[in-house]
Amino acid sequence: MASDPSRLDLVRSSATELALEALLELDSASFTDLLVEYAVRASSGRSVAFFYTEYRRSRVEHACLGSIVQVKPGGEEYRLVLTYSVGTTASVPVPEGTRPVLDMLHMLSDMPEEHAFDCRASFRYRASEYVSCVPMPLVVGHATRLPYTDIRGVHLAKVRDEAHLYDIIIDHAPPKADTVRHLISFEYLSRFTPELPSDVLRFAAGISKEFGGPDE
Predict the structure, then answer these.
(1) E-strand stretches of the chain
(2) How high is the pLDDT of residue 1?
(3) Rounded CA gap, 69 and 47, in Å?
(4) Residue 125: how many other CB atoms lie within 10 Å
(5) Is 121 exposed, middle or buried (0-12, 13-18, 19+ CB in 10 A)?
(6) What is the C-alpha to C-alpha distance for residues 31 and 67, in angstroms, rounded to an integer?
(7) Residues 3-20: pLDDT tens digits?
């Protein structure tokens, strides 16, 4: 792993995107004072901070954008969003003074409590190298009265004792596209650490491999 644990190698895991989102209950006055050091921008009276890192892993450009936004002016609820992607994501100029994502993770690591993170991950595999644990795509046949002939995707979920563990959408693109995608969503309970993004990516990759992956 790189010396900066926030610089995830998505390509190595066949991932294309990873996103974490959480609502944080924090003391407004003290946290706003803390955010002053982190490229805060006022928006409708709310405290806002952005963090951005561009880097290369596996010879491919990656980008990570983090934000902390006060939900209501003067309120103690903040929405945190952290998004990784292959390629650069900054569609608008990053504000001057914006700090790297690792700084955000170090700052939040001072909070000892655990938080529930809503997570999403996307994986992409070459269909010609992909071995599926789910019998797809399925050819229904032209004799049926159904308004389709092929099943190339499915939405599955895992529930245990009424607890929703994760959802996964498996999408087999048309043959010429040679692509199979996994779209996974789940909740991840953890405290903040610099290794949090890599832990979430590892967890998501473990789910993806349960349903298929490269033929090794």
Answers:
(1) 15-25, 48-57, 60-70, 77-86, 115-126, 130-132, 138-139, 150-151, 153-160, 163-172, 179-190, 212-214
(2) 43
(3) 6
(4) 21
(5) buried
(6) 14
(7) 899 999 999 999 999 999
The β-bridge relationship of strands 115-126 and 179-190 is antiparallel
Residue 90, SS3 per DSSP: coil
Q: Can you tell me the distance from the alpha carbon of 66 to that of 68, in angstroms, rounded to the nearest whole number?
A: 7
**Can you tell me the distance from the alpha carbon of 48 to that of 39, in angstroms, rounded to the nearest whole number?**
8
Burial class (CB in 10 A: 0-12, 13-18, 19+), 196: buried
Rounded distance between C-alpha atoms, residue 174 and residue 137, angstroms: 10
Q: In degrees rounded to 5, what are phi and psi of residue 51?
A: -135, 140
Give CA–CA dist 182/169, Å, rounded: 6
Residue 119's beta-bridge partner residues? 20, 186
**Cβ distance 38 to 96 under 8 Å?**
no
Low-confidence stretches of the chain (pLDDT < 70) are 1-2, 28-29, 39, 41-43, 88-93, 141-144, 216
| Residue 22, CA atoms < 13 Å, CB-side half-sphere | 19
Please provide residue 199's backbone torsions phi and psi, each rounded to the nearest 5 degrees.
-65, -40
Residue that is written with structure tokens 């655990």 in the block? 114
